[in-house]
Design goal:
globular, alpha/beta, 6-stranded mixed β-sheet, 205 residues, 7 helices
Length: 205
Amino acid sequence: MQTLAIDTYTGGLFETNAYYLPEARILVDAPEGAAAWLRQKGYLVESLLLTHGHVDHVWDAAKIQKEHNAALYYHPDSAPMILDPKFYERHGFPWSVATVEPGHFLEASQSSVFGGLEFQVLEVPGHCPGSLCFYQAPSGIVFGGDVLFAGGVGRWDLPGGDRDLLLGGIREKLFPLGDAVKVLSGHGPVTTIGRERAGNPYLVS
């Protein structure tokens, strides 16, 4: 198993995790405060991968895109949440996000390369339309967004959520990756597929 260097930032209203991969200049998700953290660390971002379009994951996307001239990647179904600064206000939430420049659509793929690192891109909706997970097989790590947590799963009561779609997607797309695979989630601590398969109360049948 290869070692993948990762630095983690956690911030914003919902304590959202962002993950920076220095060897490839990749950032996974952009919560509030991530842009300032990158400046403080002296990190450069070439690829910004968004797991989904919820506000706490895209808050600093426009800043990072502008300050780093970073390429932005997201699923087409996430585009309205990411590109429309008034999307959340129209759905009754008191948030607006800075406008990003349109990026690159990203869908399920066995092999997508960012910064010289190869990922399998998995579509696992149910928490949010267009939810993506990024699996880096050589290191045995999956960046799971808000799909699977330590002892939990993503909520499905927001617009576009679907419990059965979410739980089915976890079982069909994440569990087959193998019990040893580490899950770096959008919130909370690192876990493993095996730990969640055996003890996650939403998934133990």
